[in-house]
Amino acid sequence: MLKDKMPKFPGIGMRIIKSAIAVALCIVVNLLRGADGMVFYSMLAALWCVQMYRNNTLANALQRTTGTIVGAVYGLLYILIYPYVVTNESRIVIEILCVFVGIVLVIYTTVLIRKNQAAYFSCVVFLSIIVNHIGDANPYFFVWNRFLDTMIGIAIGVCVNNIRICINPDRETLFVSGVEGILVNMENKISAFSKVELNRMIDDGLRFTISTMRTPASLLEPLSDIHFKYPVIVMDGAAIYDINKSEYVKEYVISGEASMELIALIHEYGMHPYTNVIIDDTLLIYYDDMPDEVNNNLVSRLRTSPYRNYIKREFHGNENVVYLMILDTTKRIENFCSVLREKGYYDRFKILTTLSADYKGYSYIKIYNKNSSKDNMLAYLQDKYKVQKILTFGTIPDKYDVIVGENDFNRMVRLLRKRYEPIVGRINKWNSKKAAD
After folding, report:
1. 63, 68, 38, 28: which is closest to 49 by C-alpha?
2. How far apart are CA 185 and CA 264, in angstroms?
3. How far apart, in whole angstroms, are the C-alpha atoms of residue 250 and residue 391?
4. Lowest mean pLDDT segment, chosen from 13-17, 42-46, 431-435
5. Which of 6-15, 109-118, 125-134, 289-298 has the lowest mean pLDDT?
6. Angle ∠(214,217,220) on CA atoms, nearest 5
7. What share of the chain in percent tops pLDDT 70?
8. Alpha-carbon span 266 to 278, nearest angstrom
9. Where are the beta strands (DSSP E) in 252-375?
10. CA nearest 46: which of 127, 145, 151, 126?
11. Does residue 237 have a pLDDT over 90?
12. What percent of the chain shows pLDDT beyond 90?
C-alpha cells in the first residue's frame, strides 16, 4: 500500500514544545518590561535550561548563572579601565593584549571556583560586552540588563521545563517489561526515544524494572544508560540483580552436587557446558576445551566484554550454579533433551531450548533451578518493596498483562507512558488519531 511506503517522521516531543513556549514567554516578559530588555539573551538562557531530564535543568541553570556573573564582572571591569589603558597610538596592540588577559582571567576564575563547565558561557558574556558596548555612555546599564535578561531566561526555562501535564502519575504500580523484541532492537541497542522517555519517567518516580533471559552482562551493554531504581530480573528468573549496587539480591541455584551430575551427563554425550556461577556478586562462566569452531567463536566474541568473566577451567562442584548452558547443533540438542526427559531431569529442573540467532543450525539449552521463574521473582519484589500492583509488558499473549508487537521497539514505552501519565497518554492518543485522520 502507498501508505506503508510513505516516509515516517518522528513526532514532535515535549522538549520541542517546551522550548517554543519558553522562547514565547521571554518575548511576553520583555514586552511587559516595556521592550527595554535584551530579549535575545533571555531566549538563549531559556533554551539552554530546557533539557531532556528535569534533574539536568537546575545544574544547567546554575552553570549559566555562574557563567553570566563571571563574564559580566570582567566585562564591566574591561569597559571601566578601557579609556585609561587604550590610546590611539597603541590601540590595536593594547586591545589585543587586554582581550587576551581578560579571557585568561575569565577562564581561570571558573577554574578557581570549580565551575569549569561555565567557562564557555563566561567568555561569551565577557566578549558580548567588550565587543559590542565599548564606549557606551552608561556601561553599568548594559551589564545590568545583560545579567537581568539572562536570569529572566533561566527562570522561564526552569519553570517551563518543570511543567507537569499529568497531575496524578501512577507511582504505586510496578511496571515490568521484557527486553528482547521490545526494548532492544536487532543491533542490540535501545532507541533514543525510549531511552529519553524511560529515564524521564523513572526520574519522575516511575516504578520500573525488566525481566529477561539475559545475564547482567548482556543486559548492561545496551541498557547501561537507563536510570534503573529497582533491581532487575535476569537469567529467566534465576536471579535478581541490583545494577546500582552491582550485587545479586536473590538467586535460585543448582547445588554443586546436582551440577556435577548434570555436567557428567553432558560430557557423556560429547557436549561441553558453560557453567555459570555467582561468587562475591560476580558471575563467572567456567568452560573447557571447545572442539568446534562455533563454540570457540562464541567465547572469543563474548569474553571481550568488561561485564563477562570467562574462565577456562574445569568446574569442581565447590559452588552453587545459577544455570548450565550448552550450544550445539539443533539435532544434537533435541536428542539430548530427549535423554533428559527420559531420565526425569525435566521434573527436577527447569530446562529451556532456543534456536541460535547467530549460528545457523545451532540451538541453546539452558538448565536452571526448578523454582527459577519470573513469577517467583515478581512475588519477591512485590513483597520487598510493598508494591500494590504489578503490570507486565511482553510479546506473548496470555503471559503478559499488556501485549506489545514484536520488534515495535518504541511501542512499549508509549504504552507505559499512557498508563503512568494518563493525561499525557490521552493527549498522545489524540495526536495519533488526528495524524491518522
Report:
1. 63
2. 37
3. 21
4. 431-435
5. 6-15
6. 90
7. 89
8. 21
9. 273-279, 282-287, 310-312, 321-329, 349-355, 362-369
10. 151
11. yes
12. 42
Say which residue the cell 579571557 belongs to. Answer: 103
| Beta carbons of 396 and 364 less than 8 angstroms apart | no
Q: What does the buried/exposed string (b/e) look like for 308-332 if buried means 16 or more CB atoms within 10 Å of the residue's CB?
A: bebeeeebebebbbbbbbbbbbbeb
CA pair distance 241, 235, nearest whole angstrom: 10
Q: In the β-sheet with 239-242, what is the strand arrangement from edge to edge?
A: 232-234, 239-242, 247-251
User: Contact at 8 Å (CB) between 249 and 240?
Assistant: yes
Measuring CA to CA, which residue among 128, 122, 77 is closest to residue 103? 122
Confidence (pLDDT) at 164: 66
DSSP 8-state symbol, 254: B
Round to whole Å and give the CA distance between 385 and 172: 10
List the beta bridge partners of residue 324. 275, 367
Of 409, 435, 389, 430, nearest to 165 (Cα)?
A: 430
Q: DSSP letter for 52, please.
A: S
CA 43 – CA 31 distance, rounded (Å): 13
Q: What is the enclosing helix (H) or strand (E) of 308?
A: none
Per-residue pLDDT tens for 325-368?
Answer: 999 999 999 999 999 999 999 999 999 999 998 899 999 999 99
CB neighbour list of residue 47: distance below 8 Å, 6 or more residues apart: 19, 22, 23, 153, 157
Domains of the chain: 14-161 (no CATH), 173-251+375-436 (3.40.50.1000), 269-296+310-368 (3.30.1240)
**Among candidates 308, 310, 364, 309, which has minimal Cα distance to 332?**
364
H or E element, residue 232:
strand 232-234
In the numeric block, which cell numbers belong to residue 389? Answer: 500492583
99 vs 94: CA distance, rounded Å: 9
CA–CA dist 151, 147 (Å, integer): 6
Q: Answer yes or no: are the C-beta atoms of 61 and 50 closer than 8 Å.
A: no
Q: Is 181 left (phi over 0), alpha (psi -120 to 50) or beta?
A: left
The grid coordinates of residue 1 equal: 500500500
Structural contact between residues 66 and 117, judged by C-beta atoms closer than 8 angstroms: no
Residue by residue, DSSP assigns 169-220 as ---SEEEEE--BTTTB-TTS-B-HHHHHHHHHHHHHT-EEEEB-SS-HHHHH
User: Could you give the CA distance from residue 160 to residue 410 in angstroms, rounded to a whole number?
Assistant: 26
C-alpha cell at position 385: 518493596
